[in-house]
Amino acid sequence: MKYAKLAMLLPLSLSLCLSMPVLAAGSNCSNKDIACVSGGIGSTEREELQQQAGQYSLWLRTAASKSGAYLADIKVIVRSEKTKAVLLSTSLDGPWLFLALPEGRYEVEAHYHDKATRSDQIVKKVTDIKKGSQRQMMMYFEASNVGELNYKPAS
């Protein structure tokens, strides 16, 4: 009898595991409705995240506009464009954020604080997620001294 109950639970457990995106390197930022992972610091972590990218419907990357250097510690808020309800609010642990959003239209808002200039920047974009598809989004910020080399050779 005990084994019969276990045998019934095994297929259910397996189907639940297979229906959720596999978490990759980086940090899980999921809430009860949206699975997501952020990270991408270092080439090894980016490679591991890229292997999981197909499980997510929106791939967001953040970078400095002049140098193209990746930026982390960006606050991202995702809203339903229709209702303006906040579906996810998270701070990125790296320059990449992968989200498993259902079909719909979303406003993505990213906040960057430039510590050198003590200035705040907000970038907003809207995207449509279609069933079974993936979208990519780049968000650029004016970031002072990011990705610049200030090296002067000894004379």
Distance between the termini: 83 Å
- Category from helices, strands and their pairing: alpha+beta
Q: Tell me the total number of β-strands.
A: 9
Tell me, briefly, the overall form.
Answer: globular
Summarize the biggest pleated sheet: 5 strands, mixed
* Overall mean confidence score, pLDDT: 81
Strand content: 35-45%
Radius of gyration: 19 Å
Helix content: 10-25%
What is the multimeric organization of the chains shown? single chain
Detail the poorly predicted runs. 3-24
Can you put this structure into words, describing what you see?
The chain has 155 residues and is α+β, with helices and mostly antiparallel strands. The protein contains 2 helices and 9 strands; from the N terminus they run αββαβββββββ. It has helices at 2-19, 43-52, and strands at residues 27-28, 35-39, 58-64, 75-80, 86-91, 96-100, 104-114, 119-129, 135-141. The strands form 2 sheets. The chain has a 5-stranded mixed sheet with strand order 1-2-6-3-9, covered by helices on one side. Strands 5-4-7-8 form a 4-stranded antiparallel sheet, with no helix packed on it. β4 and β5 (86-91) form a beta hairpin.
Features:
single chain, 155 residues, alpha+beta, 5-stranded mixed beta sheet, 4-stranded antiparallel beta sheet, 39% strand, globular, disordered N terminus
Write the topology of this structure:
Layout: H1 2-19, E1 27-28, E2 35-39, H2 43-52, E3 58-64, E4 75-80, E5 86-91, E6 96-100, E7 104-114, E8 119-129, E9 135-141
Parallel strand pairs: 3-9
Antiparallel strand pairs: 1-2, 2-6, 3-6, 4-5, 4-7, 7-8
